[in-house]
Design goal:
The protein has 348 residues and is α/β, with parallel strands linked by helices. The protein is built from 12 helices and 12 strands. The chain has a single domain (4-343), classed as Luciferase-like domain (TIM Barrel, Alpha-Beta Barrel). It has an 8-stranded parallel beta barrel with strand order 1-2-3-4-7-8-9-12, surrounded by 5 helices. Strands 5-6 form a two-stranded antiparallel ribbon. It has a two-stranded parallel ribbon with strand order 10-11. The radius of gyration is 19 Å and the shape is globular. The chain binds flavin mononucleotide.
């Protein structure tokens, strides 16, 4: 039993594919998210993880255009559930660390410490441009994120007064009460050089994007080694897109249908924003981004899916945040068809 299960939740419209081919109605509404969360919890899943977006990607689908804000979303789901851990995602350009310290402490108290935070530096100038915010150069963005996390950690530690002076923040005699009884987990989801070094120094989780299952065996040890050099440990999560049918041929035909209906306008907007603003998706093709939003393809039959997830576990991955075509139906199928195989493999 080494691998934790999580869901990369459909709190945004049209997840996970940038395509007009949909097998289920949109699942971003809160009621649907709550049903999925409760089902995942009853299956023994450990984590729920949202997407934070302020603007969609246009095209016919306006990919991710409707989205539930992730702090308020987590507050609601934490009250609906009782065991599962739930993350929120914040963009550093939009929030002051004091606001996040207070919101996080509140959620930690509300949930008996089941809340965690994914910190995103920001990468879509289209998104922030609509608010009149200019993203800084990549390295400076991560310097600001590092300062943000350092202040947050200090405020959550209760070691007052907090003082900090940098290009980004001036904090004097800072305090924020209540403090959480344990420090909430902090994740970063960038794979760029800047992201990896900051994560090794300051974060608890690295949520990484990979182009293939095999790449995990190369990337995971590097992340662990970097953290070790900082005298720390960092857990690693990946996000697979699970697409399985009775035969490999049928699974491939379904992928072909998704790709044939790619929303090219939205997919190109997504790709252009990533190319300009991020260093984490340089090896991804348009088809890879369009079919799964950047998630690793884990495809074939249920046995193939179980084998590939087992390989992720063997590569040292700590958690997988699953994405599905139809979260409500596929979660049931996953429980019936894949979880018993993972259990037999000793993975869960
Ligand atoms: C699992 C995962 C979840 C992510 N969630 C979000 C998100 O909710 N909002 C967002 O703007 N970016 C999100 N990203 C993007 C990353 O946080 C990161 O900003 C992006 O990959 C660019 O990183 P880089 O600038 O270090 O290359 C996510 C990435 C991954 C792999």
């Amino acid at each position: 039993m080494s691998l934790s299960l999580g869901l990369f939740m459909p709190n945004c419209s049209n997840m996970p594919s940038i395509s007009r081919h949909n097998v289920a109605p949109n699942q971003w509404h809160y009621e649907s998210n709550e049903r999925i969360a409760l089902h995942a919890e009853s299956l023994g899943f450990d984590y729920l993880f949202p997407v934070s977006r302020w603007k969609g990607f246009g095209g016919d689908t306006n990919f991710l255009g409707e989205s539930l804000e992730t702090i308020t979303w987590a507050a609601s789901l934490l009250k609906a559930t009782s065991k599962i851990n739930i993350f929120s995602t914040i963009h550093v350009p939009l929030f002051h660390p004091f606001v996040v310290a207070k919101m996080g402490a509140t959620l930690a108290h509300v949930s008996q410490d089941r809340w965690g935070l994914n910190v995103v530096s920001g990468w879509s100038q289209r998104e922030f441009g609509m608010m009149g915010i200019q993203l800084e150069p990549h390295d400076e963005r991560y310097q600001k994120t590092a300062a943000f996390i350092e202040i947050l950690r200090e405020l959550w530690s209760g070691n007052f007064p907090v003082n900090h002076s940098s290009k980004w923040y001036q904090i004097s005699d800072g305090e924020s009460r209540p403090v959480p009884s344990v420090q909430p987990a902090i994740a970063n989801a960038g794979t760029s050089e800047d992201a990896q070094s900051m994560t090794a120094r300051l974060c608890d989780w690295a949520f990484i994007s990979l182009t293939s299952v095999d790449q995990a065996a190369v990337v995971v040890p590097k992340i662990r080694e970097r953290a070790r050099m900082e005298g720390r440990t960092v857990k690693v999560a990946v996000f697979p897109f699970l697409l399985w049918r009775d035969s490999r041929k049928a699974a491939q035909e379904e992928l072909d249908r998704i790709l044939a209906e790619t929303d090219r306008v939205a997919a190109n907007n997504w790709m252009n924003d990533l190319t300009a603003g991020s260093g984490s998706f340089d090896d991804f093709t348009l088809d890879m981004l369009a079919s799964s939003g950047g998630a690793i393809h884990v495809m074939g039959t249920s046995e193939d899916v179980a084998d590939q997830v087992t390989r992720l576990d063997q590569a040292g991955v700590d958690a997988i945040m699953l994405t599905f075509q139809d979260y409500e139906k596929d979660l049931r199928r996953f429980a019936d068809q894949v979880m018993p195989l993972l259990s037999a493999n000793g993975v869960i």
